[in-house]
Amino acid sequence: ALLVTMHHIISDGWSMEIFNRELGILYNAFCHNQSSPLADLPIQYLDYSVWQRQQTDILQQQLSYWKQQLDSVPKSLDLPTDKIRPTVQSFTGNRFSIEIPPALSETLKDLAKRENVTLFMLLLSAYQLLLHRYSGQNDILVGTPIAGRTQTEFEGLIGFFVNSLVIRARISPDLSFNQLLAQVKETSLSAFDHQEIPFEKLVEALAPQRDMSRNPLFQVMFSLQNDTLTLPQMEQLNVRNLDLSIGKAKFDLTLFIRQRNNGLQASFNYATDLFDPSTIERMAGHYLTLLTAIAEYPNKAITELP
Fold first, then answer.
1. How confident is the model over 109-162, as pLDDT tens digits?
2. DSSP letters of the chain?
């Protein structure tokens, strides 16, 4: 078994794809006593850092957008919990996964095409509606990761480029799901256009009231990912992933959805300080019920969706 550990401050998911690909290339070359066939990088991560610090005007403009977008946001998303929230987060966690059947997955993809939105926007809208149902709150903030490699020169670098964006949905009972979806589309596209401002700089500028028991600005996250990490191709070796549970949760709740050849898999990563396994299992079932109804009745009022 090969275990590779990298601190997140120097790496991200995109970087691991690069690492695995280059690991395979180097392994195969060294098996034949060849030198590294990898071309020299045109730039280094230091160059990215310098470039980012030079974007003063752009970052200031984007900061103004986020100040307006996140004006008067609620302090927190208060989901009903099974346990009393500890005064300081321990980040202990677990996960529960369900399969979204292939037929339903295809119907949702077709619906996204008809509505001229991405699958990400559709699944996120359903998630925000689920959180609205559970919390009873109408102003829902969800974090989502974005690759952050806005320049082609950055695509081949190993480093920390990923950023967190805050997607805000204002949900009212008179909305149909299609109307909610249109709102989430517009908000998401605007957020993507203002993705360069680092999340920690945004928190610093907005200076929300800090609470050691919660993450600032958002406490739940959503991520749509491709099937699995590309494995290194190594001569005379069969390589596979070992699936390890790290027993951690960075947020109260994170929904990871993976696109697979035979459909979609939804994994709920949750803080065990807050939730019992049975609660998350029930929540996952409710999300599946909601998706099934959305696929069949996208024009229905959100209050009428089961």
1. 999 999 999 999 999 999 999 999 999 999 999 999 999 998 889 999 999 999
2. -------GGG--HHHHHHHHHHHHHHHHHHHTTPPP-PPPPSS-HHHHHHHHHT-HHHHHHHHHHHHHHTTT--S------SSPPPSS---BEEEEEEEE-HHHHHHHHHHHHHTT--HHHHHHHHHHHHHHHHH--SEEEEEEEE----SGGGTT--S---EEEEEEEE--TT-BHHHHHHHHHHHHHHHHHT--S-HHHHHHHH-PPP-TTS-SS-SEEEEEE-SSPPPP--TT-----------B-SSSEEEEEEEETTEEEEEEEEETTT--HHHHHHHHHHHHHHHHHHHH-TTSBGGG--
pLDDT of residue 150: 86
Tell me the pLDDT of the chain averaged across its residues: 94
